[in-house]
Amino acid sequence: MDFRDSPAEAEFRARLHAWIARHNPGLPVSSTDDEYWARQAEWHTALYDAGFFGLSWPRRFGGHELPAVFDVILDEELAAAGAPPRPSLGYLVQGIATHGSQAIQERFLPGLINGRERWCQGFSEPDAGSDLAALRTTARLDGDEYVIDGHKIWTSYSDVADWCFLLARTDPAAAKHKGLSAFAVPMHQPGIEQRPLRMINGITTEFGQLLFDGARVPAANMIGEPGEGWRVAMTIVGHEREPGELGYVARYSKMVSELEQAVRADPGAFASSQREAVAWAYVQAEMLRLHVRRRLSERLDRVDHGPGGSIDKLLMTWVEQAVGSAALAVAGPRAVTDAGDVGLKIYLYSRAQSVMGGTSQIQKNIIATRILGLPAA
Amino acid sequence: MDTRDTSEQAELRRTARRLARELGPRSVADLDDGKRKKRLAEAVREAGWLELRQDGGDGAPLASGVEAALIAEALGEAVADVPFAGPVLAEDLARRAGTSAGDGAVVAFSPELTGAAVVSGSTTQTGLVAVDCAAEGPAAAYVLVPEGGGCRLAQVTLDAAGKGADLTRTLRALPAGAPLLPVPGQSRLLTQGDLDAWAALGLALTSADLVGLMRGVLDLTVGYAQERKQYGVPIGTFQAVQHLLAEARCLLEGAFSAALYPAWAVDALAPDEAQSAGRVAKAYGARAARTVCETAVQVYGGMGNTWDCIVHVYLRRALLSSRWFGDDGEQLRQLQRERLGVTDGLS
């Protein structure tokens, strides 16, 4: 056990540190502001072009083939500088790398990783949330194309995406989980309408919904085999639950250090309950940073955490919501007298973490049955 | 950066868990089995675990905080009723003063158990508490005596037996007015850095014990939920029960991740950094362990509230490990002092 940087890690950290000092765009925290989402693509390509994104992914797709622990160094340095977190798309990379053919990987991974092609994920539907396999969007084979009809919702980045990682029903006769397939669907076509969703904190550019009405996708853009969609989806949601894949450590540490700065500026102005909320948020964020160090170290053994991602997701959720509560506490009465208060926005946004990527209740079902070995209800 | 056990650490972890499981109590009745308890104490002594923090010859301890913490975790997991952290912490303090601890020596704490007792004068002025010591017989408990900008060690003799909430580790009260005796062989004064690093070890060991406790009690409780039937099915079938246990498992994993760092930091980072790492682990672990043990009592239902059900042995041990070196509330107050510049109302 050694928490110290190896010489190679230390060299990387120093180089990264110097680069961030010069290139930190100083964006607001993601959860509070449309400006963050508007400038996210710019940050992605800057980080990538400087050689600091896609650290653990294969070189032939634009990655650096470094051990996964380099990602935690990236998160820590971004957080320390108050820079935006790395783009959260590792789970899509994992999905394509695990299930896509050689041709699919070569076609799509470089653009996804280098940020030149932007992606959204079309899984949930109005009537298929936790019960994802109940989805009704169809993809019907027509020559060498599939024709897509249906309605997707909670689709992050759908307003700016070039591609949609779509889960659709290709075999209506097959059993619920077996008739699904995954596709890379081009977003710029007349059969797709994007509608933004306004979140409870007022931001409008993160979430959206997609209406597919005769949209078309080449059959060659299927990711995995026909009927493999459920397995593809499970690979993706499994990784979507891992903070090590999402880079959220940087987000939380940044928010906590901003709250700490606010209190440090005038400690006497804050009640002990407010200060304790901030100290607890710090403890939570530190726990997650160390947890990610542990998880990414375990990957050196090529451990696939599988359902363990659900544990990480719950831990991450508790961290985000502790940070949200601390932000609300520090804001004090401002949170109710000023609708634009940042603390209020951080708090409100934090409530989504126990829903997105699989609700906390679903995660607990998975942990109980697949990790603790309790009988399924 | 690699937080995995080395192969030696993994082997030690396996050995410690095996020994603790074989010789630790399996039931409340086992706590009264003096023969078993003696075998356990002998096994821990023979393994050399009480000397881990002795001087290895160059001023550094024989083994790092990581080895000490993983043994503490294994003993906690089995609610092993044997002194470990107490004597190890006494050895660590003695080494820092340039000497080595006598057999069975422990450290005397202030009544709130947050830190080593500081005494000036020739006798103790208030009541003190020795933690995790032998249940009976004479033994020494160290106190700190301020001197020349640092501290030297003195000792008081324990005689009366004591009884604390924890049924697996002994507390012995020292009345005010106990005479201070010299600790021989000290070659240097303890600095603030020594005391911070020592406190970091205390936080690391108590946090590791809490992680072990959570693991042990959760294993038992999951097993119980698979066997105990109501409405004709195991209670572990019900989501209401499943979700309690799933949350408990997450708390255990988070506490484990947080507790590794201070155990490593004790010997690798500056004392104040190691202590801060310990505060994070302890604040998280104390809250987590309380919830996990309470969940165990709840899932065991009526049985969980009886003396003969072993889950309260875990809960009681968690209460002591949480309080020892400061509970979550104390750690959060100290973190406010360190990180938020708060000074009012803090010692």
CATH topology of the domain at 192-340 in chain B: Butyryl-CoA Dehydrogenase, subunit A, domain 3
What's the helix count of chain A? Answer: 14
**Total domain units of chain A:** 3
Most extensive interface between two protein chains, with residue counts: A-B, 53 and 52 residues
Into which percent range does the helicity of residues of chain A fall?
40-55%
Which terms summarize this structure?
heterodimer, A: Butyryl-CoA Dehydrogenase, subunit A, domain 2, Butyryl-CoA Dehydrogenase, subunit A, domain 3, 3 domains, four-stranded mixed beta sheet, 14 helices, about 45% helix, B: about 350 residues, alpha+beta, two-stranded antiparallel sheet
Tell me what the structure shows:
The complex is a heterodimer of chains A (377) and B (347). The mean pLDDT of chain A is 93. In chain A, α4 runs parallel beside α9, α11 runs antiparallel to α13 and α11 packs antiparallel against α14. Chain A has a four-stranded mixed β-sheet. A four-stranded antiparallel β-sheet of chain A has the order 2-3-7-6, with no helix packed on it. Chain A is globular and about 70 Å long. In chain A, a hairpin with a 2-residue loop joins β2 and β3. Chain A has three domains: 90 residues, Orthogonal Bundle (Butyryl-Coa Dehydrogenase, subunit A, domain 1); 111 residues, Butyryl-CoA Dehydrogenase, subunit A, domain 2, CATH 2.40.110.10; 137 residues, Butyryl-CoA Dehydrogenase, subunit A, domain 3. Chain A has 14 helices and eight strands. Helices cover 47% and strands 13% of the residues of chain A. With 377 residues, chain A is of the alpha+beta class. By secondary structure, chain B is α+β, with helices and mostly antiparallel strands. Chain B has a domain of 149 residues: Butyryl-CoA Dehydrogenase, subunit A, domain 3 (Up-down Bundle), CATH 1.20.140.10. Chain B contains ten helices and eight strands. In chain B, the strands form two sheets. Chain B has a six-stranded mixed β-sheet with strand order 5-2-1-3-4-6, with helices on one face. Chain B has a two-stranded antiparallel sheet with strand order 7-8. In chain B, α1 packs parallel to α3 and α5 packs parallel to α7. The longest helix of chain B is centred in the middle third of the chain and has 36 residues. Chain B starts with 6 loop residues before the first helix and ends in a 7-residue tail after the last helix. Chains A and B meet through α4, α9, α10, α11 and α14 of A and α5, β8, α6, α7 and α10 of B.
